[in-house]
């Protein structure tokens, strides 16, 4: 306080003035200290909350990791058990097969024995001699043997057993006779034996079933010669097996292209002309050099780098357009191409070939490869954001149902299955063991459960035949139950009962480990244990939510036995008990509902961290993740199939073969179809966009269903080097899918419509001209296909108007004025141009990026969709994407942009226009990659024709930016210069509004335009009385605009200079900064004096100019040191002199809040501010 007294005395204050001055300064000081303390307390509180949130996230992640490990271990145990059972079954099957084969051989043996009894004794003796000879063969496993028998004579490849079942088995080999037709003239020794023994090999793992495969085998017992047929040996079968030829992809590269044809195509290719005409000189490319040369009439690109090709020059053939696809097919699709990724394929091509934009072409080619798309791992296709299930607030309004089984071993009573049911509101479970799962049995079990809990309004099941059969549909119809089903192969939709199934199986396995066939008797005890424990999502046990009290369980009984303390409930009458029970149930369910909402938000937050909002439109080709043909537990991508319609937020109806089925988006992947070769060539020709003159943000202005613009439509800075252009082309190739005129759909934010009244707003539809209805219907159909709108039965209805554009086409607009009147305003702060331009100081390289229909990339919250309904002559529709014209649409877009760019530097945005600004090109490229990575994560697309990358001169927010200077936009200046002379009040206001956008560039704008603005006052005639003053003001504005004034961008690192001056008619201020030792203007400001202010003294006017100028530029001057220059010398003593004038004294007290140095300048030097204060003569 003492310093305030000293300061007041220094200012010459006495008595009451001094006391008031000290008190005011003391209050200000106390307020500043209090605000500082509050800021520190808020900062500390935020830090504590962030640490607590971080600890909770880490704990949840650890818990989730433990659960994943447990589930993985459980799956591994189940797989090992299944494999063990499968091996046992295989052994049993093989054993049974061998026994059956033995029985069959014994039967054939008996038949042969009966036949042999009728043969001559001589033949039996000869056969006995043959068998004796055959029995003397050595016991080796494989080899060639000489066989001399009545059935076959000659050399064969044989397999010998150490412990043979029979002496000799002759299979179905060439030259062998039938068992019932032996050679009756056979004599022992007629054929010369040629037995060649080989080293015996151990016969270890031979499968006996291989020797018993042929049904025509005949048995020879050791005690009686018999001949039977056997199988062909494996060696013989291996020799006879033919090799299947490899399948080779058909490629157009097999077409013969000779040298003359290559030269001809190079000369005819317009994209190679600039390389042929370019002089032969080396260009630096990093550490390497590049130049182009023609050798033997063939155009080459010669590239040399210390780390490439051993430092030797690498000569690359420049490939003309018709041959580029052939090169890519050989490098990627051929049998030795390997279907490698983009980078490896590009490297392989560049080892011998080159053409402009090679990397972008290879990227498109690889992404459209059919084989690569169908074999991509499932994990590389991102999941879509999690959708919240509706919260059910009434017990057993909706229940989830599923089946578990087949359970092995079955129970002692023959139960093999379990029917499970879980209530959505209370999480109350039911489980019934079943012996079979036909529809009748399942329906009887459900009716039995409903007899205890009541009939629900809705049931949710999968697509099992038991649940979708005609019998079950009839049961649902009789009980008035709405049947909901999940999509195929997407059990996550029924996650509530699936989670309970996992808990039931795991717990049941533990309970019945000693008596596995008694598992059905443990189910009731298991259900009690589950119902008694509080659920993590609700915070209450199912018993509490069901009965409104805690049931008496094992813990309560044990406590009573130990403490002998039994709670005696208060005696109440029936009415009081029912009333309190109902009140408690309602309160408990409300708390549980709130806990469920928090649990949903938390689960969605963690699930959506790596999710991408992928959308498909009718007509798109997609691949579907379906089971393989040989194993339904293995999944593979199949297709492509066509999307027929959008059924829900993430569900699509797909035409699979001759059927239409609904699939979830997580099972779908967009199929990129490779265009034919002719289209591939034509796609490289640059053509001007047809819709460049539109800004892409018109209300409900439709884009085509298919992508018309791509990276070829992006403009690059004209002063970029070739290396910089290539780096930008490579960057665009990595993010090709982001450059599209088809809007995406983000999950960053949803548009919410909060109304002050629940009464629906309806307006009578406006009449639509008949000639415009056909185009309106076509636009509506396109919007339906794009998923922007859907048919509606909402009680809300806003009218539609059709407005003609400049090109004669129609624009569809929705009049939301009545809905906007009852909409709660969203106070999201909007960006200001002054703040954005301040952040651009020092930047030399710019990239401007425009979102493709930014509003249409934001979905509308599901419960607010009916509020966007609008009526047309063909019906009522409602918006699924955020429409233009709603009062809070801009705030929602701003909030989404702020979330996406949070923490990112060197990027500013104004609505859906983004501007990347840096000092160096390397930093600029890094910022672009970070920005497009975030755009990819947010699933936002940018319009290529409105993007310009790597330029030093860019148009932004109606201004031209270049080398730290801010100028006028030529297009807007042309509109002002070409504007006709206004004749009415409305036209004058329009002209002043158009010119006033650049008033900071025009000194003394307020005074110059005063004759025009005076004509718009109340009481003046609607038709302007145009006089010399108005004409001079009109021409002066046009003249000043045509001079192309330039301002410097504010640099907060440099000191500001404020010059002010006053005249009898107005005051002016000019904010400047020094550049190169000379002051340059940053902004101009001027103001006409009111009637009372014109009566001020000269000193008061000059001081008023200072105070008004500082308030005008307070955003730049608050908290920094600056220089105040004035040509009124007495004001240089503002900080030390004593002023008797109370008005000036109040202003001096206000100026104490600023750190300024006052300088006096000559009036001749204050030309800028002096001019601002003068009224136009």
Automatic annotation (TrEMBL):
Keywords: Endonuclease, Hydrolase, Nuclease, Nucleotidyltransferase, Protease, RNA-directed DNA polymerase, Transferase. Residues 784-961 form the Reverse transcriptase domain. Residues 24-85 are annotated as: Disordered. The keyword Hydrolase applies. Transmembrane segments: none annotated. GO terms for molecular function: endonuclease activity; nucleic acid binding; peptidase activity; RNA-directed DNA polymerase activity. Residues 391-550 form the Integrase catalytic domain. One of its GO terms (biological process) is proteolysis. It holds the Pfam family RVT_1. Residues 30-85 have a biased composition (Basic and acidic residues). PANTHER family: PROTEIN CBG26694, PROTEIN NYNRIN-LIKE. This is Reverse transcriptase.
């Amino acid at each position: 306080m003492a310093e305030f007294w000293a300061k007041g005395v220094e200012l010459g204050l006495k008595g009451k003035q001094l006391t008031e001055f000290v008190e005011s300064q003391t209050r200000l000081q106390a307020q500043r200290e209090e605000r500082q303390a509050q800021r520190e307390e808020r900062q500390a509180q935020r830090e504590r909350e962030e640490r607590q949130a971080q600890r909770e996230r880490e704990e949840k992640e650890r818990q989730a990791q433990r659960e994943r490990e447990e589930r993985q271990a459980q799956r591994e145990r189940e797989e090992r058990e299944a494999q063990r059972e499968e091996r046992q079954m295989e052994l049993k099957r093989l054993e049974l097969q061998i026994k059956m084969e033995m029985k069959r051989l014994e039967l054939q043996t008996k038949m042969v024995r009966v036949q042999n009894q009728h043969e001559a004794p001589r033949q039996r003796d000869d056969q006995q001699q043959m068998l004796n000879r055959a029995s003397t063969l050595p016991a080796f496993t494989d080899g060639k043997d000489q066989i001399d028998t009545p059935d076959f004579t000659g050399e064969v490849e044989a397999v010998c057993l150490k412990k043979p079942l029979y002496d000799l088995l002759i299979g179905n080999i060439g030259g062998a006779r039938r068992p019932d037709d032996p050679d009756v003239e056979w004599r022992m020794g007629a054929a010369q034996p040629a037995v060649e023994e080989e080293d015996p090999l151990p016969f270890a793992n031979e499968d006996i079933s291989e020797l018993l495969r042929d049904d025509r085998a005949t048995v020879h017992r050791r005690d009686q010669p018999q001949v039977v047929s056997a199988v062909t040996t494996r060696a013989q079968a291996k020799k006879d097996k033919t090799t299947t030829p490899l399948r080779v992809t058909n490629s157009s590269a097999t077409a013969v292209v000779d040298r003359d044809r290559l030269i001809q195509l190079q000369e005819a290719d317009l994209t190679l002309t600039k390389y042929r005409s370019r002089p032969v000189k080396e260009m630096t490319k990093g550490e390497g050099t590049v130049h182009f040369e023609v050798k033997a009439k063939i155009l080459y690109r010669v590239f040399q780098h210390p780390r490439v090709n051993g430092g030797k020059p690498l000569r690359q053939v420049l490939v003309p357009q018709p041959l580029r696809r052939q090169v890519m097919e050989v490098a990627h699709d051929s049998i030795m191409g390997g279907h490698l990724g983009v980078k490896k394929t590009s490297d392989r091509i560049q080892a011998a070939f080159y053409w402009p934009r090679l990397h972008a072409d290879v990227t498109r080619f690889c992404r459209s490869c059919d084989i690569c798309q169908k074999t991509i791992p499932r994990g590389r296709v991102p999941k879509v954001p999690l959708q919240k299930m509706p919260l059910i607030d009434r017990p057993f309004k909706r229940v989830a149902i599923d089946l578990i089984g087949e359970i092995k071993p079955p129970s002692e009573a023959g139960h093999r299955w379990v029917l499970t049911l879980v209530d959505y509101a209370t999480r109350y479970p039911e489980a019934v063991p079943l012996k079979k799962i036909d529809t009748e049995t399942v329906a009887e079990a459900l009716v039995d459960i409903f007899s205890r809990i009541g009939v629900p309004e809705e049931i949710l099941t999968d697509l099992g035949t038991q649940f979708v059969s005609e019998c079950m549909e009839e049961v649902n119809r009789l009980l008035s139950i709405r049947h909901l089903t999940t999509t195929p192969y997407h059990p996550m939709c029924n996650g509530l009962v699936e989670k309970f199934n996992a808990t039931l199986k795991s717990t049941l396995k533990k309970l019945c480990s000693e008596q596995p066939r008694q598992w059905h008797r443990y189910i009731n005890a298991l259900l009690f244990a589950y119902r008694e424990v509080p659920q993590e999502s609700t915070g209450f046990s199912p018993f509490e939510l069901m009965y409104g009290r805690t049931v008496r369980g094992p813990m309560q009984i044990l406590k009573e036995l130990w403490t002998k303390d039994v709670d005696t409930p208060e005696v109440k009458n029936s009415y009081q008990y029912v009333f309190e029970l109902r009140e408690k149930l309602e309160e408990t369910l409300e708390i549980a509902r709130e806990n469920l909402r928090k649990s949903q938000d938390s689960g969605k937050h963690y699930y959506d961290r790596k999710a991408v909002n992928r959308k498909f439109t009718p007509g798109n080709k997609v691949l579907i993740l379906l089971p393989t043909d040989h194993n339904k537990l293995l999944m593979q991508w199949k297709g492509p199939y066509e999307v027929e319609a959008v059924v829900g937020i993430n569900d699509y109806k797909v035409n699979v073969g001759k059927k239409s089925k609904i699939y979830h988006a997580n099972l779908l992947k967009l199929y990129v179809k490779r265009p034919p070769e002719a289209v591939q060539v034509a796609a490289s020709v640059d053509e001007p966009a047809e819709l460049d003159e539109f800004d892409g943000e018109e209300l409900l202005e439709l884009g085509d269903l298919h992508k018309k613009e791509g990276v070829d439509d992006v403009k690059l800075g004209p002063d970029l080097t070739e290396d910089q252009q290539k780096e930008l082309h490579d960057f665009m190739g990595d993010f090709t899918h982001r450059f599209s005129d088809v809007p995406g759909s983000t999950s960053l934010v949803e548009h919410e419509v909060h109304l002050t009244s629940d009464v629906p707003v309806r307006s009578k539809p406006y009449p639509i001209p008949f000639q415009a209805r056909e185009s309106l219907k076509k636009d509506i159909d396109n919007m339906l296909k794009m998923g922007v709108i859907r048919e509606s039965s909402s009680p809300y209805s806003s009218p539609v108007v059709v407005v003609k554009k400049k090109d004669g086409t129609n624009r569809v607009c929705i009049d939301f004025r009545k809905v906007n009147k009852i909409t709660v305003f969203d106070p999201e702060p909007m960006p200001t141009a002054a703040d954005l331009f301040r952040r651009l100081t020092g930047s030399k390289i710019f990239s401007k990026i425009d979102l493709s229909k930014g509003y249409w990339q934001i979905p509308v919250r599901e419960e607010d969709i009916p509020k966007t309904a609008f009526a047309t002559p063909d019906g009522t529709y409602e918006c699924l994407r955020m429409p233009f014209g709603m009062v809070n649409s801009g705030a929602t877009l701003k909030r989404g942009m702020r979330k996406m760019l949070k923490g990112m530097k060197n990027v500013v945005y104004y609505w859906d226009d983004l501007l990347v600004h840096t000092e160096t090109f390397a930093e600029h490229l890094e910022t672009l990659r970070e920005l497009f990575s975030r755009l990819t994560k947010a699933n936002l697309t940018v319009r290529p024709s409105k993007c310009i990358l790597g330029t030093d001169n860019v148009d932004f927010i109606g201004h031209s930016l270049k080398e730290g200077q801010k100028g006028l936009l030529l297009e807007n200046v042309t509109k002002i210069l070409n504007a006709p002379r206004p004749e009415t009040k409305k036209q004058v206001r329009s002209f002043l509004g158009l010119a006033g956008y650049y008033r900071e560039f025009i000194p003394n704008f307020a005074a110059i335009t005063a004759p025009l603005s005076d004509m718009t006052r109340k009481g003046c005639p609607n038709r302007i009385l145009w006089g010399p003053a108005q004409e001079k003001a009109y021409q002066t504005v046009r003249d000043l605009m045509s001079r192309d004034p330039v301002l410097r961008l504010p640099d907060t690192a440099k000191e500001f200079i404020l010059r002010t001056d006053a005249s009898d008619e107005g005051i002016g201020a000019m904010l400047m900064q020094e550049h190169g030792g000379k002051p340059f203007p940053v902004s101009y400001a001027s103001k006409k004096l009111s009637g009372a202010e014109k009566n001020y003294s000269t000193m008061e006017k000059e001081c008023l100019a200072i105070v008004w100028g500082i308030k005008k530029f307070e955003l730049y001057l608050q908290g920094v040191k600056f220089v105040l220059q004035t040509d009124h010398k007495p004001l240089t003593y503002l900080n030390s002199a004593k002023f008797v004038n109370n008005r000036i004294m109040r202003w001096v007290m206000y100026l104490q809040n600023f750190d300024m140095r006052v300088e006096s300048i000559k009036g001749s030097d204050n030309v800028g501010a002096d001019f601002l204060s003068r009224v136009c003569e």
